[in-house]
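User: Hi! I'm working on a homework problem where we have to compare a predicted structure to a textbook description. Could you give me the structure for the chain below?
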Amino acid sequence: MHFSSKTEEPSSKVASEVVNNEPNDLDPTHKEKEEEPIGGSYLLEIDEEKSSPNGESESYFTYAGSAPFKISLLNTGTESFLYKIQNVDKDTNVTNGVLKSNESFERIFDGLPEGDYVISYVVQEEEPPVNIKLKVKVELLP
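Assistant: Happy to help. Predicted structure tokens:
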């Protein structure tokens, strides 16, 4: 009988350890819940310098449609390129234009549909691919 009571004690300790481990298992779910608003935030922002030896590149961002945002492009290279901003989900063109060396584009957008967007950059001239360089920034406005 002593053996059975001793056997029960460790098993109750094991059970209490399992109970103690359960909150640790819940911690990742709390972290996931905290990450959900970040992942579903108003805008996936971009702030990067891009360089492409083949004369074309793309930047993607997601917009939740609830606040204005600003897109800034600066051609830091020597080649002109065509930029195009499109809504990937609806396959619609938002705007496009050409940026020559050291030229910039900056515009505030408001009221665009929710969804994924792409900003594409392509050198216009029909010569061997050349290196494009630019700074791109997409930021949510307060």
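For your comparison, note the following. The two ends are 71 Å apart (CA to CA). Confidence is low (pLDDT under 50) at residues 4-42. Good luck with the assignment!
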